[in-house]
Amino acid sequence: MRNTDEVTTSTRRSYANSEQQYAEACTVLAGGVNSNFRLHGQPVPLVFQRGIGARLYDVDGNVYVDYAMGMGPNILGHAPEPVIRAVADSLAGGQIFAGQHSSEVQLARRVCELVPCAELVRFGVAGSEMDQAALRLARAYTGRAKVVKFEGHYHGWFDTILVSVAPPLDQAGPAEEPLPHLPSAGQSVAAAQDIVILPWNNLDVVRAYLQAHATETAALIMEPILCNTSVIVPRPGYLEGVRELCDRYGVVLIFDEVITGFRVGLHGAQGRLGVTPDLSVFAKSLAGGFPIGAVVGRRSIMELAADGSVLHGGSFNGHTASMAAGLATLQELSRAGVYEQMEARGDALMAGLRRVAERAGIRLLVQGLGTVFNTAFCDGPPVTDYRSYQQCSDSAQLRGFLHALQEHGVRPTSRGTWFLSTAHTDADVEETIRAAEAALGFPGRGRAA
Ligand code: PMP
Q1: Helix or strand or coil: residue 194?
Q2: Is 154 a known active-site residue?
Q3: Is 231 in the pocket of ligand 1 (CB under 6 A)?
Q4: Which helix (H) or strand (E) holds 428?
Q5: What is the C-alpha to C-alpha distance for residues 178 and 195, in angstroms, rounded to an integer?
Q6: Annotated catalytic, 256?
């Protein structure tokens, strides 16, 4: 392996070891992966050896400035020393007790201090399962069955909610009354029958829907900043309007902050945008790369779990390692200036990507916030929701760009989303912009037609 941290800009990297180890993985792991979202994760399926700070090293010795950051969780970068130390110390005292311990209380208290809607907390191990808990709480609280979910938003892979995440447009129905689309073979149609799909970022549609159906609607669930379709900040007044409608009709408003939580700010998207939901779900960045999930919210709703009427369980919930990781992560993120610096670097990266694309005569949409943004080859009206994104973005060009970036030592996620971490430096950003400039000129790849 190369003994330098410099990212190579040679355009003929070898992936021989990755290819061989991936082929071997396919003999024992279904598809060679442990999540379908890694199935086509890289143009060449990479096998990684280690990650340190902002860098990832593959088994061929190639180095990458990493912006996948574990799909978001590694908000402090790879192997952050304070978190690793806290986890190691906690594990010396045991792992799980099937009973209470002090660090889960400390972490819950800190979450309540930081998250506007959090009066009570329950921890789990992933976002998907905490979204389930939120839906169950909302249905129990209201005694209603229907849940409104928005096209292009993702709330985990379970049967009840895996609907219309990325529906093919020819199967998606009318824009204002989308047809529910179940993407996975084997999904229970019955489990998803109470999900209603609406387009996001359109207050009139929500108003009209609730006027007609509020009495059967338990909850509205959304990513308050949509990060699973480009990265789209809601229109001014949209979240406020939804909040008001939910109040008027007694519908539980759930913000899925699995990506935005502790990433777009210490108080989540709800703190940043000033709209407080009734329930909210957190995961990824909360424990700096260790498995965690949390459902948090208003006492009156969360108490349904306290009195046992709503069942939420899990052998690994409150695991000592994850609680220690969460406490250490929040401590680091609470330091003055951390978010400002991370966001400023991300803003500089976004500006640099726009600049090199413009210079190359390529229409590259760079959309989002400094701490999480998306790149797409787009030519069309502004991207405000799932359909406007699908209609304008060219996925073949994106693939070419990602491939070229990989060759130049830069790794965003496979759908063109970039996650910043506190480990990224100004030098990383400059190097990335240079790599992107080279990638946009890569013969036959990443160049606009
Ligand atoms: N909600 C959102 C908004 C997500 O982005 C994700 C995962 N990307 C989930 C829920 C599911 O979380 P997990 O993968 O931890 O189950």
Answers
A1: coil
A2: yes
A3: no
A4: helix 426-440
A5: 11
A6: yes
Q: What is the pLDDT of residues 49-88, one digit of tens each?
A: 999 999 999 999 999 999 999 999 999 999 999 999 999 9
Contact 131, 256 (CB under 8 A): yes
pTM: predicted TM-score of the whole model, two decimal places = 0.96
CA-CA distances (angstroms) from residue 170 to 33, 178, 383, 428? 30, 11, 19, 41
Ligand 1 centroid–CA 128 distance in Å is 6
Residues 6+ apart with CB under 8 A from 330: 107, 110, 111, 114, 262, 286
235 burial via Cβ count (<10 Å: 0-12, 13-18, 19+):
middle
Is 60 tagged catalytic? no
C-alpha–C-alpha distance, residues 198 and 165, integer Å: 12
CA distance 75 to 421: 5
**Distance, CA of 144 to CA of 195 (rounded, Å):** 12
Residue 367 CA, ligand 1 centroid: distance in Å: 20
Q: What is 142-173 written as a DSSP string?
A: H---EEEEETT----SSTTT--SSS--GGGS-
DSSP string, 86-136: HHHHHHTT-S--SS--HHHHHHHHHHHHH-TT-SEEEEES-HHHHHHHHHH
Asked if 378 and 394 count as a contact pair (C-beta separation under 8 A), the reply is yes
The preferred substitution site among 74, 150, 155 for testing ligand 1, maximizing ligand atoms within 8 Å of CB, is: 155
Using the mean position of ligand 1's atoms as its centre, give its distance from the Cα of residue 155 in Å: 6
Model confidence pLDDT, tens digit, residues 283-328: 999 999 999 999 999 999 999 999 999 999 999 999 999 999 999 9
For helices 338-359 and 426-440, angle between their N-to-C axes, nearest 10 degrees = 20
